[in-house]
Protein backbone atom coordinates (compact mmCIF):
# COMPACT_ATOMS: atom_id res chain seq x y z
CA UNK A 1 0.00 0.00 0.00
CA UNK A 2 0.97 3.66 -0.25
CA UNK A 3 -0.28 7.07 0.72
CA UNK A 4 0.67 10.27 -1.09
CA UNK A 5 -0.82 13.74 -1.10
CA UNK A 6 -0.31 16.99 -2.95
CA UNK A 7 -1.55 20.42 -1.82
CA UNK A 8 -1.67 23.41 -4.17
CA UNK A 9 -2.25 26.52 -2.07
CA UNK A 10 -1.96 30.26 -2.46
CA UNK A 11 1.44 30.15 -0.77
CA UNK A 12 2.81 27.22 -2.75
CA UNK A 13 2.94 23.51 -3.35
CA UNK A 14 3.37 20.70 -0.79
CA UNK A 15 3.89 17.02 -1.66
CA UNK A 16 4.27 14.13 0.77
CA UNK A 17 4.68 10.37 0.40
CA UNK A 18 5.27 7.42 2.66
CA UNK A 19 7.90 4.80 1.78
CA UNK A 20 6.28 1.46 2.58
CA UNK A 21 5.94 -1.15 -0.12
CA UNK A 22 4.55 -4.59 0.44
CA UNK A 23 3.56 -7.80 -1.30
CA UNK A 24 1.57 -9.23 1.57
CA UNK A 25 2.12 -8.51 5.27
CA UNK A 26 5.02 -10.97 5.29
CA UNK A 27 6.94 -9.16 2.59
CA UNK A 28 7.33 -5.44 3.10
CA UNK A 29 10.10 -3.00 2.47
CA UNK A 30 10.90 0.71 2.22
CA UNK A 31 11.30 2.54 -1.12
CA UNK A 32 11.41 6.22 -1.89
CA UNK A 33 8.20 7.30 -3.63
CA UNK A 34 8.93 11.04 -3.83
CA UNK A 35 11.08 11.48 -6.92
CA UNK A 36 12.99 14.58 -7.98
CA UNK A 37 12.59 14.80 -11.76
CA UNK A 38 14.23 18.20 -12.16
CA UNK A 39 15.75 20.63 -9.69
CA UNK A 40 17.47 23.61 -11.26
CA UNK A 41 16.83 27.30 -10.79
CA UNK A 42 14.50 27.35 -13.81
CA UNK A 43 12.78 23.98 -13.45
CA UNK A 44 11.69 22.13 -10.29
CA UNK A 45 9.60 19.02 -10.91
CA UNK A 46 8.64 16.29 -8.43
CA UNK A 47 6.44 13.18 -8.57
CA UNK A 48 5.01 10.79 -5.98
CA UNK A 49 3.95 7.31 -7.07
CA UNK A 50 1.44 4.65 -6.03
CA UNK A 51 0.81 1.14 -7.32
CA UNK A 52 2.99 -1.69 -8.55
CA UNK A 53 6.60 -0.84 -7.65
CA UNK A 54 8.00 -2.33 -10.87
CA UNK A 55 5.54 -0.21 -12.86
CA UNK A 56 6.24 3.02 -10.99
CA UNK A 57 10.03 2.52 -11.24
CA UNK A 58 9.66 1.93 -14.98
CA UNK A 59 7.62 5.12 -15.37
CA UNK A 60 10.13 7.22 -13.39
CA UNK A 61 13.11 5.77 -15.31
CA UNK A 62 11.39 6.41 -18.65
CA UNK A 63 10.88 10.04 -17.65
CA UNK A 64 14.43 10.45 -16.36
CA UNK A 65 16.10 8.75 -19.33
CA UNK A 66 13.72 10.16 -21.93
CA UNK A 67 10.82 8.93 -24.05
CA UNK A 68 11.32 7.53 -27.56
CA UNK A 69 11.56 10.30 -30.11
CA UNK A 70 9.01 8.63 -32.34
CA UNK A 71 10.84 9.48 -35.55
CA UNK A 72 13.12 6.48 -35.43
CA UNK A 73 16.08 8.55 -34.28
CA UNK A 74 18.24 7.75 -31.30
CA UNK A 75 17.37 11.04 -29.63
CA UNK A 76 14.89 10.82 -26.81
CA UNK A 77 12.48 13.44 -25.47
CA UNK A 78 13.00 14.59 -21.87
CA UNK A 79 11.05 16.87 -19.57
CA UNK A 80 14.07 19.18 -19.55
CA UNK A 81 12.79 20.73 -22.76
CA UNK A 82 9.06 20.82 -21.85
CA UNK A 83 7.73 24.38 -21.95
CA UNK A 84 4.93 23.98 -19.37
CA UNK A 85 3.82 21.65 -16.56
CA UNK A 86 0.93 20.57 -18.82
CA UNK A 87 3.50 19.31 -21.36
CA UNK A 88 5.33 17.49 -18.57
CA UNK A 89 2.05 15.86 -17.46
CA UNK A 90 1.48 14.73 -21.05
CA UNK A 91 4.93 13.13 -21.12
CA UNK A 92 4.37 11.40 -17.77
CA UNK A 93 1.01 10.09 -19.07
CA UNK A 94 2.83 8.81 -22.15
CA UNK A 95 5.40 7.07 -19.92
CA UNK A 96 2.54 5.38 -18.04
CA UNK A 97 1.10 4.14 -21.33
CA UNK A 98 4.48 2.78 -22.44
CA UNK A 99 4.84 0.98 -19.07
CA UNK A 100 1.28 -0.37 -19.44
CA UNK A 101 2.13 -1.80 -22.87
CA UNK A 102 5.35 -3.47 -21.69
CA UNK A 103 5.58 -4.35 -17.97
CA UNK A 104 1.82 -3.97 -17.51
CA UNK A 105 0.94 -6.48 -20.20
CA UNK A 106 3.36 -9.01 -18.72
CA UNK A 107 1.79 -8.59 -15.27
CA UNK A 108 -1.75 -8.86 -16.60
CA UNK A 109 -0.84 -12.09 -18.37
CA UNK A 110 -0.23 -13.69 -14.97
CA UNK A 111 -3.20 -11.93 -13.34
CA UNK A 112 -1.18 -9.49 -11.25
CA UNK A 113 -2.29 -5.91 -10.80
CA UNK A 114 -0.27 -3.49 -12.91
CA UNK A 115 -2.00 -0.30 -11.86
CA UNK A 116 0.15 2.78 -11.29
CA UNK A 117 -0.80 6.38 -10.58
CA UNK A 118 1.16 9.54 -9.80
CA UNK A 119 0.93 13.05 -8.50
CA UNK A 120 3.11 15.43 -10.48
CA UNK A 121 3.97 18.86 -9.14
CA UNK A 122 6.37 21.61 -9.97
CA UNK A 123 7.03 24.80 -11.87
CA UNK A 124 8.93 25.88 -14.95
CA UNK A 125 10.56 29.29 -15.16
CA UNK A 126 8.27 32.08 -13.97
CA UNK A 127 5.09 30.03 -14.35
CA UNK A 128 3.09 29.37 -11.18
CA UNK A 129 3.39 25.96 -9.48
CA UNK A 130 1.00 23.31 -10.84
CA UNK A 131 -0.17 19.94 -9.55
CA UNK A 132 -1.53 17.03 -11.60
CA UNK A 133 -2.89 13.55 -10.89
CA UNK A 134 -1.95 10.99 -13.55
CA UNK A 135 -4.25 7.95 -13.61
CA UNK A 136 -3.36 4.40 -14.51
CA UNK A 137 -4.45 4.84 -18.14
CA UNK A 138 -2.11 7.81 -18.54
CA UNK A 139 -4.93 10.39 -18.54
CA UNK A 140 -4.67 13.18 -16.00
CA UNK A 141 -6.40 16.03 -14.19
CA UNK A 142 -5.05 19.28 -12.82
CA UNK A 143 -5.63 20.43 -9.24
CA UNK A 144 -7.92 23.46 -9.06
CA UNK A 145 -8.99 25.97 -6.44
CA UNK A 146 -12.28 24.19 -5.67
CA UNK A 147 -10.38 21.19 -4.24
CA UNK A 148 -6.86 22.27 -3.28
CA UNK A 149 -5.55 18.76 -2.62
CA UNK A 150 -5.08 15.48 -4.46
CA UNK A 151 -4.45 12.04 -2.96
CA UNK A 152 -3.36 8.64 -4.30
CA UNK A 153 -3.05 5.22 -2.66
CA UNK A 154 -4.75 4.51 0.67
CA UNK A 155 -6.66 7.78 0.60
CA UNK A 156 -9.72 7.30 2.79
CA UNK A 157 -8.36 7.27 6.35
CA UNK A 158 -6.58 10.56 5.87
CA UNK A 159 -9.25 12.38 3.85
CA UNK A 160 -11.56 13.69 6.62
CA UNK A 161 -8.79 15.76 8.21
CA UNK A 162 -7.86 17.20 4.78
CA UNK A 163 -11.52 17.93 3.99
CA UNK A 164 -11.82 19.93 7.18
CA UNK A 165 -8.30 21.22 7.63
CA UNK A 166 -6.96 22.34 4.25
CA UNK A 167 -7.84 25.80 2.93
CA UNK A 168 -6.36 27.63 -0.05
CA UNK A 169 -5.30 30.57 2.05
CA UNK A 170 -3.50 28.77 4.90
CA UNK A 171 0.24 29.26 5.49
CA UNK A 172 2.53 26.49 4.30
CA UNK A 173 3.66 25.47 7.79
CA UNK A 174 0.01 25.01 8.86
CA UNK A 175 -0.63 22.95 5.73
CA UNK A 176 2.37 20.73 6.50
CA UNK A 177 0.95 20.10 10.00
CA UNK A 178 -2.43 19.07 8.58
CA UNK A 179 -0.68 16.85 6.03
CA UNK A 180 1.27 15.17 8.85
CA UNK A 181 -2.01 14.61 10.75
CA UNK A 182 -3.54 13.05 7.64
CA UNK A 183 -0.58 10.66 7.37
CA UNK A 184 -0.77 9.91 11.07
CA UNK A 185 -4.42 8.84 10.65
CA UNK A 186 -3.59 6.63 7.67
CA UNK A 187 -0.61 5.03 9.44
CA UNK A 188 -2.57 4.24 12.61
CA UNK A 189 -5.34 2.53 10.63
CA UNK A 190 -3.33 0.74 7.93
CA UNK A 191 -0.04 -1.11 8.36
CA UNK A 192 0.58 -0.61 4.63
CA UNK A 193 1.39 3.07 5.20
CA UNK A 194 4.48 3.84 7.28
CA UNK A 195 7.38 6.17 7.95
CA UNK A 196 9.86 7.31 6.78
CA UNK A 197 7.86 10.04 5.05
CA UNK A 198 9.26 12.28 2.35
CA UNK A 199 8.20 15.92 2.19
CA UNK A 200 8.66 18.61 -0.48
CA UNK A 201 7.63 22.25 0.02
CA UNK A 202 7.81 24.71 -2.89
CA UNK A 203 6.91 28.28 -1.85
CA UNK A 204 5.08 30.19 -4.57
CA UNK A 205 7.30 33.27 -4.23
CA UNK A 206 9.67 33.48 -7.21
CA UNK A 207 13.25 32.59 -6.53
CA UNK A 208 12.51 30.75 -3.28
CA UNK A 209 14.30 27.46 -2.69
CA UNK A 210 12.52 24.12 -2.53
CA UNK A 211 12.57 22.36 0.85
CA UNK A 212 12.85 18.58 0.93
CA UNK A 213 13.00 16.56 4.12
CA UNK A 214 12.73 12.96 5.27
CA UNK A 215 10.71 12.26 8.43
CA UNK A 216 12.28 9.19 10.02
CA UNK A 217 10.37 6.62 12.16
CA UNK A 218 11.86 8.17 15.31
CA UNK A 219 11.31 11.80 14.32
CA UNK A 220 10.76 13.74 17.56
CA UNK A 221 8.53 16.40 16.05
CA UNK A 222 6.23 13.89 14.35
CA UNK A 223 5.98 11.76 17.52
CA UNK A 224 5.08 14.81 19.59
CA UNK A 225 2.52 15.91 16.98
CA UNK A 226 0.84 12.49 17.02
CA UNK A 227 0.68 12.38 20.81
CA UNK A 228 -0.54 15.94 21.11
CA UNK A 229 -3.22 15.32 18.49
CA UNK A 230 -4.60 12.37 20.49
CA UNK A 231 -4.84 14.55 23.61
CA UNK A 232 -6.42 17.43 21.70
CA UNK A 233 -9.01 15.13 20.12
CA UNK A 234 -9.97 13.80 23.54
CA UNK A 235 -10.30 17.34 24.86
CA UNK A 236 -12.33 18.35 21.82
CA UNK A 237 -14.68 15.39 22.24
CA UNK A 238 -15.26 16.26 25.88
CA UNK A 239 -15.88 19.90 24.95
CA UNK A 240 -18.84 18.94 22.77
CA UNK A 241 -22.14 18.99 24.70
CA UNK A 242 -23.61 15.59 25.56
CA UNK A 243 -26.52 14.23 23.51
CA UNK A 244 -29.65 15.86 24.99
CA UNK A 245 -31.76 12.73 24.55
CA UNK A 246 -29.84 10.41 26.90
CA UNK A 247 -28.36 10.58 30.38
CA UNK A 248 -24.87 9.46 31.45
CA UNK A 249 -26.02 5.89 31.93
CA UNK A 250 -27.45 5.61 28.43
CA UNK A 251 -31.07 5.90 29.52
CA UNK A 252 -33.55 7.92 27.49
CA UNK A 253 -34.20 11.43 28.74
CA UNK A 254 -37.58 12.90 27.98
CA UNK B 1 -23.12 2.51 0.20
CA UNK B 2 -23.67 2.15 3.93
CA UNK B 3 -21.92 2.82 7.20
CA UNK B 4 -22.70 0.95 10.42
CA UNK B 5 -20.82 0.61 13.69
CA UNK B 6 -21.17 -1.36 16.91
CA UNK B 7 -19.42 -0.55 20.19
CA UNK B 8 -19.22 -3.03 23.06
CA UNK B 9 -18.06 -1.17 26.17
CA UNK B 10 -17.98 -1.72 29.91
CA UNK B 11 -21.15 0.33 30.26
CA UNK B 12 -23.07 -1.35 27.45
CA UNK B 13 -23.70 -1.72 23.74
CA UNK B 14 -24.13 1.00 21.10
CA UNK B 15 -25.15 0.39 17.48
CA UNK B 16 -25.57 2.97 14.77
CA UNK B 17 -26.47 2.86 11.06
CA UNK B 18 -27.13 5.33 8.30
CA UNK B 19 -30.12 4.88 5.97
CA UNK B 20 -28.81 5.67 2.49
CA UNK B 21 -29.10 3.08 -0.25
CA UNK B 22 -28.07 3.68 -3.80
CA UNK B 23 -27.65 2.03 -7.14
CA UNK B 24 -25.52 4.73 -8.71
CA UNK B 25 -25.58 8.42 -7.78
CA UNK B 26 -28.72 8.90 -9.89
CA UNK B 27 -30.72 6.33 -7.95
CA UNK B 28 -30.61 6.65 -4.19
CA UNK B 29 -33.13 6.21 -1.46
CA UNK B 30 -33.52 5.84 2.30
CA UNK B 31 -34.08 2.48 4.02
CA UNK B 32 -33.85 1.54 7.67
CA UNK B 33 -30.75 -0.60 8.28
CA UNK B 34 -31.05 -0.91 12.07
CA UNK B 35 -33.48 -3.77 12.63
CA UNK B 36 -35.13 -4.78 15.90
CA UNK B 37 -35.13 -8.58 15.90
CA UNK B 38 -36.41 -8.98 19.47
CA UNK B 39 -37.37 -6.49 22.14
CA UNK B 40 -38.89 -8.01 25.25
CA UNK B 41 -37.78 -7.81 28.88
CA UNK B 42 -35.84 -11.09 28.51
CA UNK B 43 -34.48 -10.71 24.99
CA UNK B 44 -33.25 -7.62 23.15
CA UNK B 45 -31.62 -8.28 19.79
CA UNK B 46 -30.69 -5.79 17.05
CA UNK B 47 -28.91 -6.00 13.70
CA UNK B 48 -27.46 -3.47 11.26
CA UNK B 49 -26.95 -4.47 7.64
CA UNK B 50 -24.65 -3.58 4.75
CA UNK B 51 -24.58 -4.76 1.15
CA UNK B 52 -27.20 -5.58 -1.45
CA UNK B 53 -30.57 -4.34 -0.16
CA UNK B 54 -32.48 -7.31 -1.59
CA UNK B 55 -30.03 -9.64 0.15
CA UNK B 56 -30.15 -7.91 3.52
CA UNK B 57 -33.96 -7.71 3.46
CA UNK B 58 -34.08 -11.43 2.67
CA UNK B 59 -31.75 -12.19 5.59
CA UNK B 60 -33.76 -10.08 8.04
CA UNK B 61 -37.09 -11.58 6.89
CA UNK B 62 -35.69 -15.11 7.19
CA UNK B 63 -34.65 -14.36 10.78
CA UNK B 64 -37.97 -12.74 11.65
CA UNK B 65 -40.16 -15.41 10.05
CA UNK B 66 -37.98 -18.33 11.07
CA UNK B 67 -35.48 -20.65 9.40
CA UNK B 68 -36.53 -24.01 7.92
CA UNK B 69 -36.74 -26.68 10.64
CA UNK B 70 -34.71 -29.10 8.56
CA UNK B 71 -36.77 -32.12 9.53
CA UNK B 72 -39.37 -31.57 6.83
CA UNK B 73 -41.92 -30.22 9.30
CA UNK B 74 -43.78 -26.95 8.85
CA UNK B 75 -42.35 -25.61 12.09
CA UNK B 76 -39.60 -23.04 11.67
CA UNK B 77 -36.77 -22.11 14.00
CA UNK B 78 -36.74 -18.56 15.36
CA UNK B 79 -34.30 -16.59 17.47
CA UNK B 80 -37.02 -16.40 20.14
CA UNK B 81 -35.90 -19.78 21.40
CA UNK B 82 -32.14 -19.30 21.09
CA UNK B 83 -30.42 -19.71 24.45
CA UNK B 84 -27.41 -17.44 23.81
CA UNK B 85 -26.25 -14.69 21.47
CA UNK B 86 -23.79 -17.16 19.97
CA UNK B 87 -26.76 -19.34 18.94
CA UNK B 88 -28.44 -16.27 17.45
CA UNK B 89 -25.27 -15.46 15.50
CA UNK B 90 -25.25 -19.02 14.17
CA UNK B 91 -28.84 -18.63 12.98
CA UNK B 92 -28.10 -15.27 11.33
CA UNK B 93 -25.10 -16.87 9.60
CA UNK B 94 -27.39 -19.65 8.40
CA UNK B 95 -29.86 -17.06 7.08
CA UNK B 96 -27.02 -15.40 5.14
CA UNK B 97 -26.11 -18.77 3.60
CA UNK B 98 -29.74 -19.43 2.60
CA UNK B 99 -29.91 -15.96 1.01
CA UNK B 100 -26.60 -16.64 -0.78
CA UNK B 101 -27.99 -19.87 -2.23
CA UNK B 102 -31.23 -18.26 -3.46
CA UNK B 103 -31.13 -14.50 -4.15
CA UNK B 104 -27.32 -14.48 -4.21
CA UNK B 105 -27.05 -17.12 -6.93
CA UNK B 106 -29.57 -15.25 -9.08
CA UNK B 107 -27.57 -12.02 -8.71
CA UNK B 108 -24.25 -13.71 -9.46
CA UNK B 109 -25.75 -15.18 -12.62
CA UNK B 110 -26.14 -11.66 -14.00
CA UNK B 111 -22.80 -10.47 -12.55
CA UNK B 112 -24.30 -8.29 -9.80
CA UNK B 113 -22.73 -8.16 -6.35
CA UNK B 114 -24.68 -10.16 -3.79
CA UNK B 115 -22.48 -9.48 -0.81
CA UNK B 116 -24.20 -8.84 2.53
CA UNK B 117 -22.76 -8.42 6.02
CA UNK B 118 -24.25 -7.61 9.40
CA UNK B 119 -23.45 -6.51 12.92
CA UNK B 120 -25.57 -8.37 15.46
CA UNK B 121 -25.89 -7.12 19.02
CA UNK B 122 -28.04 -7.85 22.02
CA UNK B 123 -28.54 -9.84 25.18
CA UNK B 124 -30.64 -12.75 26.35
CA UNK B 125 -31.87 -12.96 29.91
CA UNK B 126 -29.17 -12.17 32.46
CA UNK B 127 -26.30 -12.79 30.04
CA UNK B 128 -24.05 -9.81 29.25
CA UNK B 129 -24.54 -7.91 25.98
CA UNK B 130 -22.64 -9.37 23.03
CA UNK B 131 -21.71 -8.03 19.57
CA UNK B 132 -20.93 -10.07 16.44
CA UNK B 133 -19.90 -9.34 12.87
CA UNK B 134 -21.42 -11.74 10.35
CA UNK B 135 -19.52 -11.90 7.05
CA UNK B 136 -20.90 -12.49 3.59
CA UNK B 137 -20.19 -16.25 3.75
CA UNK B 138 -22.21 -16.56 6.96
CA UNK B 139 -19.14 -17.00 9.17
CA UNK B 140 -18.78 -14.58 12.08
CA UNK B 141 -16.52 -13.13 14.78
CA UNK B 142 -17.35 -11.79 18.22
CA UNK B 143 -16.25 -8.36 19.44
CA UNK B 144 -13.63 -8.58 22.19
CA UNK B 145 -11.98 -6.23 24.65
CA UNK B 146 -8.87 -5.76 22.51
CA UNK B 147 -10.90 -3.95 19.86
CA UNK B 148 -14.14 -2.67 21.36
CA UNK B 149 -15.76 -1.68 18.06
CA UNK B 150 -16.79 -3.28 14.77
CA UNK B 151 -17.65 -1.55 11.49
CA UNK B 152 -19.26 -2.58 8.20
CA UNK B 153 -19.79 -0.74 4.91
CA UNK B 154 -17.82 2.43 4.13
CA UNK B 155 -15.56 1.97 7.15
CA UNK B 156 -12.34 3.85 6.39
CA UNK B 157 -13.29 7.53 6.66
CA UNK B 158 -14.74 7.07 10.14
CA UNK B 159 -12.11 4.68 11.54
CA UNK B 160 -9.35 7.11 12.66
CA UNK B 161 -11.67 8.88 15.11
CA UNK B 162 -12.83 5.51 16.52
CA UNK B 163 -9.22 4.28 16.78
CA UNK B 164 -8.34 7.31 18.86
CA UNK B 165 -11.62 8.08 20.58
CA UNK B 166 -13.19 4.79 21.71
CA UNK B 167 -12.07 3.21 24.98
CA UNK B 168 -13.66 0.32 26.87
CA UNK B 169 -14.16 2.38 30.00
CA UNK B 170 -15.79 5.48 28.52
CA UNK B 171 -19.36 6.45 29.49
CA UNK B 172 -22.07 5.67 26.94
CA UNK B 173 -22.92 9.29 26.21
CA UNK B 174 -19.25 10.00 25.37
CA UNK B 175 -19.20 6.92 23.11
CA UNK B 176 -22.31 8.13 21.29
CA UNK B 177 -20.60 11.47 20.66
CA UNK B 178 -17.53 9.76 19.17
CA UNK B 179 -19.81 7.54 17.07
CA UNK B 180 -21.60 10.64 15.74
CA UNK B 181 -18.22 12.20 14.88
CA UNK B 182 -17.23 9.02 13.02
CA UNK B 183 -20.46 9.20 10.99
CA UNK B 184 -19.92 12.90 10.38
CA UNK B 185 -16.49 12.15 8.86
CA UNK B 186 -17.92 9.39 6.65
CA UNK B 187 -20.83 11.56 5.50
CA UNK B 188 -18.62 14.53 4.63
CA UNK B 189 -16.31 12.36 2.51
CA UNK B 190 -18.80 9.99 0.84
CA UNK B 191 -22.22 10.87 -0.60
CA UNK B 192 -23.20 7.21 -0.16
CA UNK B 193 -23.51 7.67 3.61
CA UNK B 194 -26.25 10.02 4.82
CA UNK B 195 -28.75 10.88 7.52
CA UNK B 196 -31.22 9.93 8.90
CA UNK B 197 -29.11 7.84 11.29
CA UNK B 198 -30.55 5.18 13.57
CA UNK B 199 -29.11 4.73 17.05
CA UNK B 200 -29.54 1.99 19.66
CA UNK B 201 -28.07 2.18 23.17
CA UNK B 202 -28.29 -0.83 25.52
CA UNK B 203 -26.88 -0.07 29.01
CA UNK B 204 -25.17 -3.07 30.59
CA UNK B 205 -26.99 -2.66 33.93
CA UNK B 206 -29.63 -5.37 34.28
CA UNK B 207 -33.20 -4.25 33.86
CA UNK B 208 -32.30 -1.04 32.05
CA UNK B 209 -34.37 -0.08 29.03
CA UNK B 210 -32.96 0.07 25.51
CA UNK B 211 -32.83 3.53 23.91
CA UNK B 212 -33.53 3.83 20.18
CA UNK B 213 -33.54 7.11 18.33
CA UNK B 214 -33.55 8.43 14.78
CA UNK B 215 -31.28 11.39 13.97
CA UNK B 216 -33.00 13.30 11.15
CA UNK B 217 -31.17 15.33 8.46
CA UNK B 218 -32.14 18.55 10.29
CA UNK B 219 -31.26 17.33 13.80
CA UNK B 220 -30.12 20.38 15.77
CA UNK B 221 -27.79 18.50 18.11
CA UNK B 222 -25.99 16.71 15.26
CA UNK B 223 -25.64 19.92 13.25
CA UNK B 224 -24.17 21.72 16.25
CA UNK B 225 -21.82 18.80 16.95
CA UNK B 226 -20.54 18.82 13.35
CA UNK B 227 -19.97 22.59 13.35
CA UNK B 228 -18.32 22.55 16.78
CA UNK B 229 -16.05 19.70 15.72
CA UNK B 230 -14.78 21.69 12.72
CA UNK B 231 -13.95 24.64 14.97
CA UNK B 232 -12.28 22.43 17.58
CA UNK B 233 -10.16 20.69 14.93
CA UNK B 234 -8.97 24.06 13.63
CA UNK B 235 -8.09 25.13 17.17
CA UNK B 236 -6.33 21.83 17.80
CA UNK B 237 -4.29 22.15 14.60
CA UNK B 238 -3.19 25.64 15.54
CA UNK B 239 -2.29 24.45 19.05
CA UNK B 240 0.29 22.02 17.66
CA UNK B 241 3.77 23.56 17.41
CA UNK B 242 4.96 24.42 13.92
CA UNK B 243 7.45 22.14 12.15
CA UNK B 244 10.87 23.16 13.48
CA UNK B 245 12.59 22.64 10.14
CA UNK B 246 10.72 25.32 8.15
CA UNK B 247 9.66 28.92 8.63
CA UNK B 248 6.24 30.43 7.94
CA UNK B 249 7.04 30.96 4.29
CA UNK B 250 8.01 27.35 3.72
CA UNK B 251 11.73 28.02 3.63
CA UNK B 252 14.16 25.60 5.28
CA UNK B 253 15.34 26.57 8.74
CA UNK B 254 18.74 25.34 9.79
TrEMBL record, chains A, B:
Taxonomy, superkingdom: Bacteria
Database matches in Pfam families: Proteasome
InterPro entries recorded: Ntn_hydrolases_N, Proteasome_sua/b, UCP009120_prtse
Designated name of the protein: Peptidase
Amino acid sequence: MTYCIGLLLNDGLVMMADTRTNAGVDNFSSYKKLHTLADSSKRQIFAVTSGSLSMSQTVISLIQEGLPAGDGSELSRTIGSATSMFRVAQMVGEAVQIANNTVGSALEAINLSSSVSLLLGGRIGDQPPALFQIYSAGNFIECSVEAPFLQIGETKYGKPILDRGIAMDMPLHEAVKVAFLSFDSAMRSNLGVARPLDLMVMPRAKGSAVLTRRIEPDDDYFNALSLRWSLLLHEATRAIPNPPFMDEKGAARS
